[in-house]
Specification:
With 376 residues, this protein is an alpha+beta fold. It has 2 domains: 229 residues, P-loop containing nucleotide triphosphate hydrolases (Rossmann fold); 133 residues, RNA polymerase II/Efflux pump adaptor protein, barrel-sandwich hybrid domain (OB fold (Dihydrolipoamide Acetyltransferase, E2P), Beta Barrel), CATH 2.40.50. Helix content is 22%, strand content 33%. The chain has 8 helices and 20 strands. The strands form 4 sheets. It has a 6-stranded mixed sheet with strand order 6-7-8-3-9-10, with helices on both faces. Helix 2 packs across helix 3, helix 2 packs parallel to helix 4 and helix 3 packs across helix 4. The longest helix is centred in the middle third of the chain and has 18 residues. The radius of gyration is 25 Å and the shape is elongated.
């Protein structure tokens, strides 16, 4: 049986937003599907928050159209749109109890009586705050206040929930916990979540798809795994996680393999697949640190074998820096040609970090399928 096509809940058509001469959002077109956890990801000033505010109705496009559930939102005020928003600061009312904070949006829209109690209790249960209704916000932790803001947004049963950097005010451990809780909550209630974040780990951990933005434009829209493994540009490869970026020239491009000569490496880079690009043209090779392999370099001993032909994908170098991060260590290796490469090494045992030391001669290599080749 063929899969049932998903419905587009948000359609952004050639949307531009200018503040004077500054283009905050530049001709963006994007579809977000119903029931999706979608992330708008990018550095500060890339336009992601402005785009979210246009979906909410707090800003209007200078050009283009924005549709929600098939309806053009150009002249629809924020309080009439089927969306609700959780702000970075949570914006809970300090003088109200948790119950009254969550009930506020219902009461101002005319909901009264037992319906308010029923829906507030339901919303608090969703965020696991059933026993906190009589408390004031100053009696709650940061994570609990964030849940109150979520409950207040969910109680009105929006078609789309918009989240503007909702975890940025939390400490690292609580932020990681709330990522998991948000993803589980979205999966449980099934409504569309659109989150704005500059944190790559946050987006990759929660979202079903991400849109990477830069200087007001869309760079790439893809699943987290495709963004990480198959970036379409140097910006995306560099922004999503850590990467070794090597400039070179495409010298051989066949259906089943390609070879790239990099001036800053002593060996050519071999790939086990063809590359879309002009032979002799400039390309950039992106290799993730965890795909790099370290081996001790002993004088007179041959380099380690790889799945590439001899003389490819294995470079001599010296460890110049070690960052111990608990479960992993990051090694910076200065190659004999002067190029610095990073390798990530797991620490499965307590003594694993001692396997390699500062200033130690090593071989650093990578499999033929590891590199991503970028044309821009």
């Amino acid at each position: 049986m063929a899969p049932i096509p998903k419905k587009t809940i948000i359609r952004i058509e050639n949307v531009t937003k200018a503040f004077g001469r500054v283009l905050a959002v530049d001709n963006v077109s994007l579809d977000i599907e119903e029931g999706e956890f979608f992330a708008l990801l990018g550095p500060s000033g890339c336009g992601k928050t402005t785009l979210l505010r246009m979906i909410a109705g707090f800003e209007l496009p200078t050009e283009g159209r924005l549709l929600i559930d098939g309806q053009d939102m150009s002249h629809v005020p924020p309080n009439k749109r089927p969306v609700n928003m959780v702000f970075q600061s949570y914006a809970v009312f300090p003088h109200m109890t948790v119950f009254d904070n969550v009930a506020y949006g219902l009461r101002v829209t005319g909901v009264t009586g037992t319906e308010v109690s029923r829906r507030v209790d339901e919303a608090l249960a969703l965020v696991r705050l059933e026993d906190y209704g009589v408390r004031k916000p100053d009696q709650l932790s940061g994570g609990q206040r964030q849940r109150v803001a979520l409950a207040r947004a969910l109680v009105k049963r929006p078609r789309v929930l918009l989240l503007d950097e909702p975890l940025s005010a939390l400490d690292a451990k609580l932020r990681e916990q709330m990522r998991s809780e948000l993803a589980q909550l979205q999966d449980k209630i099934g409504i569309t979540f659109v989150i704005v974040t500059h944190d790559q780990d946050e987006a990759l951990a929660m979202a079903s798809r991400c849109a990477v933005m830069h200087k007001g434009g869309l760079q790439q829209v893809a699943t987290p795994s495709d963004l990480y493994e198959y970036p379409n540009s140097r910006f995306v490869a560099d922004f999503i996680g850590s990467v070794n970026m090597i400039e070179g020239q495409l010298s051989v491009d066949m259906r089943d393999h390609a070879i790239i000569h990099a001036p800053k490496l002593d060996v050519p880079i071999y790939l086990d697949h063809g590359v879309t690009g002009a032979e002799g043209g400039t390309v950039w090779v992106a290799i993730r640190p965890e795909k790099m392999v370290l081996a001790k370099r002993v004088q007179g001993a041959p380099p380690p074998q790889s799945d590439a032909p001899p003389g490819h994908n294995v470079v001599a170098g010296t460890i110049c820096h070690i960052s111990y991060l608990g479960s992993v260590s990051v090694f910076e290796v200065m190659t004999v040609s002067g190029l610095k490469l990073r390798a990530l090494h797991m620490n499965p045992t307590r003594s694993a970090v001692e396997e390699f030391t500062w200033d130690e001669p090593v071989w650093i290599s990578w499999p033929a399928q590891a590199p991503a080749v970028l044309l821009s």
